[in-house]
Design brief:
- By secondary structure, the protein is an alpha/beta fold.
- It is 29% helix and 25% strand.
- The chain has eleven helices and 21 strands.
- An eight-stranded mixed β-sheet has the order 5-4-6-7-8-9-10-14, with helices on both faces.
- The longest helix has 23 residues.
Length: 411
């Protein structure tokens, strides 16, 4: 028996209990299962999850608009909530005692890198609206680390904090870590000599091999992670650096896009998760991310299966500097702008950083809009800054041009 099947069999009792709970407590889960003719007692194994249709992020946003605020996915009384987080869409993610970063499996993995009490961590994830900053803060404190809540931006201050406090662990996106390292060099510092960074807990963006090598050149050990705002932390890299170990707090499938059919290990498909979170019991939630399951045992000896990393996207939403941007958000923001014939938001990559470019095709004779105020408005709506606006001549964009395109390439 392979690693994946053995893992699935071990999760089956917990899965059965959770499906029964979600069916009873979350009306949206019950409606979806009833429509598919599936009753909880028919879900006895991970293979049986194929009977339940996948819920996608766009669908979740629609359901929340139809049945505010949580679309029928709240599994506890509202008084049992500690937080409500807000993801782009907007999507409202309820949270109780269980943190975004949860489970002994993740704590053990981080400790295996030699991190624990006495170590200082700089957490550069946002503490506002989204769950990453606050959730990671709680997680790091739970294993004895001292956390500096850096949040987003303030590059010069954060470089000074890294130097003055001798911080050993960076937490955040890989692109912002490179920004800090380069800014340190511009300030006359040698990151290898003047900073004490030895590890980086990285997520929310792709980590291509070239960027990994560059970070290792600074003497920093990358620890790649994978998670979403809706599901929490899903996978973490181990010291063997041969893939990311899957969470023990959810069932993660890789399925054929469109059909939802489970794919065997080694075949690339969409990552779909059923979380055991009783507050927010999402069942077969489609992430839109592409990867595959690794069935061979890891040299580190852990029993959990792995994914190599996220290989790209299978859905229409695109992640830009850690934030999802959906086609409907592009349309809703630009359809009312006077003088526009067509438009397109394009995501590229420049020097290990995502670049968001807005292409505007003007109607014949139309004056260009106020680009400065438009960019400010879009940043407020999309929660990600537009790097550049290109004003195009009439006829530049094809009639069938998509409003959101991902033009990045990954090694």
């Amino acid at each position: 028996m392979g690693v994946v099947q053995s893992w699935y069999e071990g999760l089956a009792p917990r899965l059965r209990e959770h499906i029964a709970y979600a069916y009873e407590r979350a009306p949206a889960v019950r409606r979806k299962m009833d429509a598919a003719g599936v009753h909880p007692e028919q879900v006895q194994s991970v293979a049986d999850l194929e009977r339940i249709p996948i819920t996608r992020k766009d669908e979740l946003a629609s359901l929340q608009r139809e049945e505010p605020p949580f679309g029928g996915f709240l599994g506890v009384a509202p008084g049992g909530l500690r937080h409500v987080f807000v993801s782009p869409g907007p999507i409202y993610d309820p949270a109780g005692e269980e943190s975004f970063y949860t489970g002994d499996w993740a704590r053990e993995l981080l400790r295996s890198f030699g991190l624990g009490p006495g170590d200082l961590a700089l957490n550069t994830y946002s503490y506002h609206l989204v769950p990453a900053g606050m959730g990671l803060d709680e997680f790091l404190c739970s294993i004895g680390l001292t956390v500096v809540p850096g949040g987003v931006g303030n590059t010069d201050v954060q470089v000074q904090v890294l130097r003055d406090l001798g911080i050993g662990l960076y937490c955040g996106t890989p692109s912002f870590l490179m920004t800090l390292l380069r800014r340190a060099e511009e300030m006359g510092l040698d990151p290898r000599r003047d900073l004490r960074l030895r590890a980086a807990f990285l997520g929310a963006e792709m980590l291509p091999a070239s960027l990994r090598r560059e970070l290792e050149g600074y003497g920093i050990v990358p620890i790649e992670t994978y998670g979403t705002a809706d599901l929490g932390l899903m996978a973490v890299e181990c010291p063997a650096h041969q893939g990311l170990h899957l969470s023990g707090d959810m069932v993660i499938e890789v399925v054929e896009p469109g059909s939802g059919r489970q794919l065997p290990p080694g075949q690339t498909g969409e990552v779909v998760a059923t979380t055991f979170n009783r507050v927010y019991p999402l069942v077969r939630f489609g992430t839109g991310d592409a990867s595959y399951l690794i069935d061979e045992p890891c040299p580190c000896g852990r029993a959990s299966p792995r994914i190599p990393r996220i290989l790209g996207r299978v859905g229409e939403a695109v992640k830009v500097r850690g934030m999802f941007l959906h086609p409907h958000q592009v349309r809703e923001a630009l359809e009312g702008v006077a003088g526009l014939a067509r438009y397109q938001a394009a995501v590229g990559r420049k020097e290990h950083r995502d670049e968001l470019v807005l292409r505007l095709e003007l109607a014949p004779g139309a004056p260009p809009p106020d680009l400065e105020s438009l960019q400010a408005r879009l940043q407020s709506l999309w929660r990600v800054r537009v790097d550049r606006v290109e004003v195009l001549a009439p006829g530049s964009l094809p009639e069938d041009a998509r409003v959101l395109v991902d033009e990045r390439s990954w090694e």
